[in-house]
Write a structure and sequence with these properties.
- The structure is a single chain.
- By secondary structure, the protein is an alpha/beta fold.
- The chain folds into two domains: about 200 residues, Vaccinia Virus protein VP39 (Rossmann fold), CATH 3.40.50.150; about 60 residues, Orthogonal Bundle (Helicase, Ruva Protein, domain 3).
- Helices cover about 35% and strands about 20% of the residues.
- It has eleven helices and nine strands.
- Helix 2 packs across helix 3 and helix 8 packs across helix 11.
- The longest helix is centred in the last third of the chain and has 14 residues.
Length: about 280
């Protein structure tokens, strides 16, 4: 039996009573052309384990099986209702697909499979950013991410200085990864349609991130963008000596500094052992 022989996703949802749960941030993608396109953004995955978070009824899962040559696909699903509905896919996959019932926020993905690893997922809206931050802390364990977020979050990930969307998430993501939006998806593509548009983001960890002091960077960006309307002399008051060493004007505001400025500031703070 092939994936193409399975019942349409809408039938699977109806048969198993799998109405989307707003509490879990669920919105289904039934358009197989769309899910196939998302899967293909990853390119050659012949040596990879691919992690999918929140497979739901399995739309993207089907595409990962048919459109990628990944050695293994591990789908992590928190909602027990979907486990039975996904079983026909595991049978067809002949060992390539593993379904794990668990909360992705509590799973160490790197411990489940050897490298190289990739994450390809239509992330639940309510935990997408939190999941990404947790993966950034382990970014060396992954080769790439193809992730769907709310469009607003995607724009924050790629935002440049002096823009409204530029913020803490922009700095953290761009310090560690090359980030670009590869596709926008309107609400009508989902069931039920959300109130916002979505975007697919491709993130590829940079080759050398050993110079990124992530702990310091998190503290500094939290302080700066937590009071983004204030001048740095107020929002980053504990770090004024570091600003002076780097010749950064303390009258600037958080959005005026580049990603590299924040990196240098975090490095200076770390080297000077400034209390966080």
């Amino acid at each position: 039996m092939a994936v193409e022989s399975l019942p349409p996703l809408r039938e699977v949802v109806q048969q198993h009573g799998l109405q989307a749960n707003k509490a879990f941030g669920q919105n289904y993608l039934f358009d197989l052309n769309l899910t196939q396109k998302i899967a293909r953004f990853a390119g050659d995955l012949s040596a990879y384990t691919v992690f999918e978070i929140g497979p739901g009824p399995g739309g993207l899962t089907r595409a990962l099986l048919t459109e990628t040559n990944a050695v293994q696909i591990i789908a992590i699903e928190k909602d027990r209702r979907f486990i039975e509905a996904l079983q026909p896919l595991t049978e067809i996959a002949r060992g390539r697909l593993q379904i794990i019932e668990h909360d992705a926020l509590k799973v160490d993905l790197a411990s489940l499979a050897p490298s190289p690893r990739a994450v390809i997922a239509n992330l639940p809206y309510n935990v997408g950013t939190e999941l990404l931050i947790s993966w950034l802390h382990q970014v060396k364990e992954f080769s790439q991410f193809i992730l769907m977020f709310q469009k607003e979050v995607a724009q924050r990930l790629v935002a440049k200085p002096d823009s409204k969307a530029y913020g803490r998430l922009s700095v953290l993501a761009q310090s560690l990864c090359d980030v670009d939006i590869v596709m926008n998806v309107g609400p009508a593509a989902f069931t039920p349609p959300p109130k916002v548009s979505s975007s697919v983001v491709r993130m590829r960890p940079k080759s050398d991130i050993s110079h990124v002091p992530l702990k310091e960077l998190e503290h500094i960006t939290a302080a700066a963008f937590g009071q983004r309307r204030k001048m740095l002399r107020q929002s980053l008051k504990p770090y004024l000596p570091a600003l002076e060493v780097l010749n950064i004007d303390p009258q600037k505001r958080a959005e005026d500094l580049s990603v590299n400025d924040y990196l240098q500031l975090a490095q200076q703070v770390k080297s000077s052992n400034t209390a966080l």
